[in-house]
## 1
Amino acid sequence: MRIAIVCYSLTGHTFEMAGEIARGIEEEGAEARIFNIRTDEVDAEYIRSASGLIIGTPTYMASSVWQVKKWIEEDSRPLSLSGKLGGAFATAHYAQGGQDTAIMDILGQLLVKGMLVYSGGGSFGLPIIHHGPVALDKEGDHYDESREMFRVYGRRFAAKALELFGK
Ligand SMILES: Cc1cc2nc3c(=O)[nH]c(=O)nc-3n(C[C@H](O)[C@H](O)[C@H](O)COP(=O)(O)O)c2cc1C
């Protein structure tokens, strides 16, 4: 079971939370690789062979960053995303900074690609994850407290992918 995490990260917060998700995925017995589209070449073969794809973005102007939108819209075209399990997460500065809008922008695009989208869910109890996990950047206490939620999200996402697609 391979799961890919594709994110854009300029100052490191989104990339760090991608690392927490990857840890959760691995705890569930699946494989995870992270690609920061700002610095890394995305391994097309890995994405093609992955059953799940999680997209991460900083919140800019209460939205996902344009680089993520472009990656999904243009660069992912040859990657056969249809039918994969998809999810999204965001980091932001303000509690009211638009991170939910950023996540929903991405989930909408993944639906257009024909993917199955998954939030991590509220029905498993705490932590309740509404649309996808969110961390506020390092300026406040919330940042380190968020790490466990991102790991739980990774575990839930991998468990759902294993349930749907097997090993
Ligand atoms: C140009 C710009 C626009 C931003 N707009 C928002 C915003 O609308 N809402 C918000 O809460 N934070 C905003 N931020 C803060 C970032 O979302 C936050 O610091 C994020 O964690 C950065 O991610 P990174 O460290 O992975 O690059 C903005 C930052 C920049 C540089």
Note: The chain has one domain: 2-165.
## 2
Amino acid sequence: MRLTLIIIGLLATMLISCSSESEQDKQYQDVEGEKVFNPTLLQVNIPENFPELTYDLNSNPPTKEGFALGKKLFYEGKLSSTGIISCGECHRQEFSFTHHKHIVSHGVNGLLGTRNAPPIQNMAFLNEFNWDGAANHLDMQPIIPITSEVEMNETFVNILNKLAADNTYPPLFKAAFENGKIDTANMLKALSQFVVTMISADSKYDKLIRNEGGIAFTAQEKAGQKLFENKCASCHAGTLFTDQSYRNNGLPLDPEYNDVGRKLVTGLAEDTRKFRVPSLRNVALTLPYMHDGRFKTLNDVLDFYSAGVQDSETLDPILKSNNNLGIALSQEEKEQLISFLNTLTDTNFIFDKRFAEF
Ligand code: HEC
Ligand code: HEC
């Protein structure tokens, strides 16, 4: 019995190594007797205080060439019907890839969306995307902004024609993908290869957690961290500062948008006005706040948690424990919390040339 298992095991190992060898062979194959497909694999380093990746790198291994194409596409206005709205227009690096000046997103012809652009950082660790989780795979997420009438308002057929007609793109697709095709699958894969490498893990908080030496919190930051752990970390949990669940944190309904959040995806009444708990990494830079960008400052956010939380059927139970609505906070505690939140800013990420347009 054991012997059989060992033999099966050996056979399986041989099969796996054969197939990986043939994968290798494929990469170094002569194409039409001349060109050699030989992309350079990019190492995606997971910071030691981070969880496992959720993105399956084996299904779309990032390469230097795929990254370069993805980055060019990210900053490409041709992805929109008007030729000027790129992904990078709404996701700006200096604000951790959010849209700073706009409460809700601003797309083609100045049309307004209904939601605030979230930061693009650490996407490779998330299970679902957008405030309501409407996209359950990173590769599929861009279909939403590209085809949205108020965002990029473009079709894939048009985009692919525009890219094929632009001299710079055909060689980039050839370098990044073995079949070299300018098609939707390759375009989405390239965008993901760029986005999965956008890992922000170098804040003062991270350096302290990783014991990188010479880093200490001030008394005020330490007090804020303690408050955060007691009052906020049940939802803004763990290294990513989100447990990735959908919750109603008691924002009064905005009559203008009447956004029901997660219910749009599940259709369930119990999901009404629930939104994904956002990560608070780089939160000092990602203003304005909440799914509709209603708060301009972190102080406004804390005033809301301490005095503005509104009861409703779907309000998260954590925010109405012992019949008290919200999270009681003194002015001093608010200041301490903000000092702690400021330690989550990662300037290396903001200034990382790899992700910059120019
Ligand atoms: C007009 C502004 C705008 C443009 C252009 C835009 N986005 Fe976004 N992006 C948003 C908004 C707003 C959301 C949140 C949408 C929602 O929750 O419904 C978002 C969400 C995302 C998310 C999910 C973030 C998360 O935390 O779940 C990713 C990834 C993303 N965008 C990538 C892209 C890419 C790639 C492109 C280009 C193909 C792009 N965006 C173009 C505004 C924009
Ligand atoms: C019951 C879960 C829960 C608790 C507890 C909680 N939050 Fe939140 N938080 C959320 C949810 C959900 C959102 C998004 C709500 C929305 O936009 O509709 C949010 C949004 C935020 C935002 C806006 C982030 C952005 O990118 O727009 C900040 C800042 C924030 N919370 C800070 C805190 C702080 C500080 C505490 C503790 C005092 C706290 N939260 C406690 C669930 C919670």
Note: The pocket of heme C (ligand 1) is lined by residues 74, 79, 85, 87, 89-91, 105-107, 113, 115, 117-118, 120, 123, 129-132, 141-142, 145-146, 151-152, 191, 195 (CB under 6 Å).
## 3
Amino acid sequence: MALITIQDFDMTRAASQPDSGLGRWYCQQLERGHILFFPRIPFELSEEDRAFLLTQQQAGAGYHKNIAYRPHQDRITGLVKRSRQEEERLRSLMRAYSRRVIRFMAALLPPYASRWRLDYASFRPQEERGRPLRLRSRNDLLHVDAFPTRPTGGGRILRVFTNIHPTRPRHWVTSETCDVLIERLAGTPGLPLPSPRHHSIWGRLGRALATAGRRVGLPLIHRSPYDAFMLRLHHYLKEHREFQASSPKHVWAFPAHSTWIVFTDMVTHAVLSGQFALEQTFIVPHEALVLPERSPLRVLERLVGAPLTAAE
Ligand SMILES: [Fe+2]
């Protein structure tokens, strides 16, 4: 796993040359489990907005991980004790941030741009070191991302992070990539291989129930065997003391005012310390991948010998 540094990215020029091949190369690096790193924030973020964000502490928010912004609903969640004015300012700031990041990502990664699903953005004002979180919510234990309430159906979790702390770096640890871990760990005690039978019979039933439930307002979640496995892997890694202690590790210090992009369902990662980060998530559908054979889904399907996502 490597850090690929991109200096002076020219967004206008990249947007005018979507077929140059460079965007495809960046996608390949991301899908291999590398991190794209920008020493300076590669999209507009005004000094005024940054200063406002730095005043936003979440008093008594031990169990609120982040402030989330939902672009499709233009809604903000996870706020603690804010005036209406402050809430409105935060919402419009997150809206503008989200739009700028989308434009930047569309210029950087044309193969994904017209096909991704936009997920939430977040603002993370809490100091990460020593946060009182439940084990499965802890950021400082190595894991791959899997969303319990928003299964991707085989789509990939691509995230853009920006450290807006005025001086301090954000420290990450990364370890082996998900494809390697699946090959080694899937099918061992505690991490059973998903069952394709579950996919064909119970999968169809589960999907039908979830669809019917949503129609009457019940928040039912249907996970494909792939999604269920990835969520299990997330828990398994965080609970696995020996893996946490003895897996090979790289420590990264992302400096103040830098940005980095990573498939967080590929790269095992943990956040050791840092405060004040912005983040936007994209779900890249499997059909848009440039190296689909490297994806966790394909690696798992090869092991099981059957498809593991629901056909829509
Ligand atoms: Fe994570």
Note: The two ends are 34 Å apart (CA to CA).
## 4
Amino acid sequence: MSTAPLLDLVAREHPAFVHIPLGLIAVLPVAMLASFHPRHIRLWTGTSFFLALAGWLGSTVALVSGLLWGRQIALIPPTAYFPAMASQKQVLQRILQVHELAAVSGFFIGGFCLWLLWRAWRRLDAPEGAGHRRRGGRRFWERGVGAGPLLLGILWLSCWGLSGKLGGIMVFGNEETNRAAAEADAAKRADVEADLPIRALDYASLEPLGSEPAPSKAHGNRWQRIWITASGIDAYRAEKPLPPGAYAVLSTFEDRKGKPSHEPGPLYMREVKADGSAAFTFYWPRVPEALRGEVGGQDSVYWRSPDPHLAACLGCHGKGGPAPAP
Ligand code: HEC
């Protein structure tokens, strides 16, 4: 992804400059409280307004940079605003969702608070009379910025405090994120097909269905051969669902003028897991330049369920059942 160097900097320094708005909003309630002092109403109401203004404007940069950063490190999909969650195990994504919600809530609460502060400040500058009819008789909670904005300011700080705390956890880790990282690591080590679909590549050891490549419209107009595990071949021939643990591999050749060429196409695999659910693999180790449009421009592809690219497979193949008649 090529972004301008300045945008890169804005994105990467997100953890650094979020502290500016957060710091301003952390002292805001103190300035607001000071405005209740009868002799400093004007000074501290004005100060509160400018603190809030600077904090709120600064936070717009923080929000944008957070979004850019999240997209850069692929926690947030390129055109989305929130992380995609495929499972509850994605601890980082879960934390990021709450982090973003808290930040955005703070932004809106802050905007409202800022508007009230502006009104309170303007009221002080209004000519005697209009807004000052009850000047002498103002109750305590109506003095200075007033109790409403003070409560909003505290709420604003709470939202950003929560957001900042979660941000810190995402950057520095805590027990849960560290454990999740360790688990993911261990799972990857135990997953022998993490880098290569070993069983699909060994398709020639399975039972072939027929002896000639046949044309397949469903898989990109290629020529295909179907290979099925011995445990599933009878069920497949009888057009019944494959039993748990069985799988089918589709080896392909690209088409050349209506005939199979010697150019190998992608390998497709459909598997029935022990729990009966379907899993898919799509492996295309070297994508010829002319065909890269099919896979978003990539020169090599290895997708496995639950990769979202494989949603189309499930669309046709349903839940573990046999493929629909072509
Ligand atoms: C347009 C519908 C369609 C889509 C999309 C599709 N398939 Fe298929 N698939 C079929 C049909 C129909 C067959 C039966 C053989 C044939 O006609 O090609 C089949 C056969 C297969 C087979 C071999 C036999 C079997 O029944 O399992 C595998 C393996 C397979 N597909 C995997 C995939 C994978 C992986 C994807 C996603 C990358 C996919 N398919 C997408 C329709 C589809």
Note: The pocket of heme C is lined by residues 216, 218-219, 224, 226, 248-250, 268-270, 280, 282, 310, 312-313, 315-317, 322-324, 326 (CB under 6 Å).
